[in-house]
Amino acid sequence: MTKRQPLRTHWTLFALGLSLLAAACGGGGQGELVALAAERDMSPEDAARAIKSFVPPGKLDDYILFASGGHSGQVFAVGLPSMRLLKSIAVFTPESWQGYGYGADWSENAIAGGSIGNETLKWGDTHHPALSETDGDYDGRWLYINDRANGRIAMIDLTDFRTKQVVQIPNLMTSHGGVFATPDTRYVHVSSKVPAPKGWNPKVGTSVKIEDHLEHYPDLYRGYSTWLRIDQQNGRILLDESFQIELPPYTQDLADAGKGPSYGWGFMNSYNSEMATGGVNYGRPPLEAGASEKDFDFLHMVNWKKAEEAVAAGKAEVVNGIKVVSLDTAIAEGILFLAPEPRSPHGVDVAPNGSYITVAGKLDPRVTVYSIEKIEEAIAKQDFEGKDRYGIPILKFDSVVAGQVEVGAGPLHTQYDHEGYGYTSLFLESAVAKWSLGPPYHEGDKAFKLVDKIPVHYNIGHLATAHGDTMKPHGNYLVALNKWSIDRFTNVGPLHPQNLQLIDLTGEKMALLRDAPIGVGEPHYAQIISTKVLKPLRVYELGTDPGIMAKSDSAIAGGAESRIERRDGVVEVWMSVIRSQFNPDVIAAKKGDKVIIHLSNVEQTPDATHGFAVPTKNVNVSLDAGETTTVEFVVDTPGSYSFYCTEFCSALHLEMQGWIVVEG
Ligand code: RUQ
Ligand code: CUA
Questions:
Q1: Which ligand lies nearest the alpha carbon of 414?
Q2: How many angstroms separate the CA atoms of 569 and 372, rounded?
Q3: 398 CA distance to ligand 1 centroid (A)?
């Protein structure tokens, strides 16, 4: 409920502030501003919020929030503090505005690279974006995002905000843990969500008998922690130099990378360490009940540095095209350890200084904070409470936990600021809790204390603070990614937009600044980066193929270089694109011909984007200034096809068209 009847005194104080503001602005006068706010039924708080988050026309935002789009399959770029949606970046799902997945070779190559088995997938479920890092801080080079529905990962190049690579990760049917980047982006990590039958290969499949699924699940299924090596020149994932660590089928959940003192480690939660298989229809407990029987699940600690050494020493085996460190090797080499964590945990988040690891369990009202110093000491002293059924050492809970804080109902994920406070999302309570970490941030009875809480609207999943996953968080903004909006916006039908809420962290109490409906997908997780770090292009250099970010062999400068060549069953065209014409603009073809068109947008004016679309052929390309791309299609029906430019690019945009005349 918003307060609609502001108190007089509030207004008096507020008017004082406004008068200073008005004086500073040299006009208007406080009376006018106060009257305006009153007329719009705004409380002083509302007016203050408006000013704090309003970005005037023509002014730019300070941050960009990169949010996954959930099962829309895309990534959203949202400006902060204005919360304006700046772009939906096409990733796993074809997107016709950007001509992504409709013929342009760079986009087709990206999508086809991640094809699963024999299928070219038409969608994905983007989950956890990870910005690349240098020295433990976002560097604005690349963004990685996983596909939770399928075991895939994509790389978005932040010089042009386009997806350049989609990779199907071997042995993963689904993914969830990650993406996170190591502080130097040597690796990005993705682990499996639901375990898959051992050696799962979508091309040939894996046969498991139903009895075996119910009786021998622990032997037949496996999870994997995947460390994908990144090419530092172009951000590409190098599968040949990547590796996996085989894990028990405990349904690994979220994950995070160590940094500072925990550099070299990766941390992963799990739920369903009971290994329930479901089967209500086979007289078994439902999966949900079976998976919540025990009081503890396992925090997984993976030493990727040691795994890297084991791989280099030839101790890994290639399975489905990637080097895999087996469970036995991982145990023998001291790569894998477990620690109990309160049941059904969800988020695991490493603090900025790298020494604390916070775990939040959906069914436990506390966050549990582990210490890397304690973990390493316990490992050195072999301070184990035992081993799991696979022989993985389990560290003693009391030996590795630094503190617990009761934060509220349904804690999920934690982000941090620069002063040693954690911010944990509370799904059941629809709130964000602020609490303190231990030394060196907070000493004695100041440590591990709940200090503030703010309601959010409603059912918060993830949350993000500015530079919140780095070693240098900014501590000013927090965005709550709420799953439900219920009554917060004008009703647009039973499917409501998700609600992103911008929260100010600079005051003593957290303060809500702005609601932002996102009606184009389900933002799941986000990272917030300062726009100072980003250096995107305004135009491509002439002839650039965005797929390789270099000059295309097919690029032309226009004029005499525009041409058509014919050979058996093929019509190949080098076409220039400029306001407001295609050249050539009439292409003759015969029924059954393959038409190959190399399109070069020969403009160097920012925003001079053109499209190229052919009716009834599902061909739709978008070309930014300077871009060259190729499109291929077969004309299997005679007709006169009028191709046209889809972007309203100029006064003669409507005239920007041409013909493909196909004789029967
Ligand atoms: S997980 S709402 Cu799929 Cu990111 Cu926690
Ligand atoms: Cu080019 Cu419209």
A1: 1
A2: 65
A3: 27
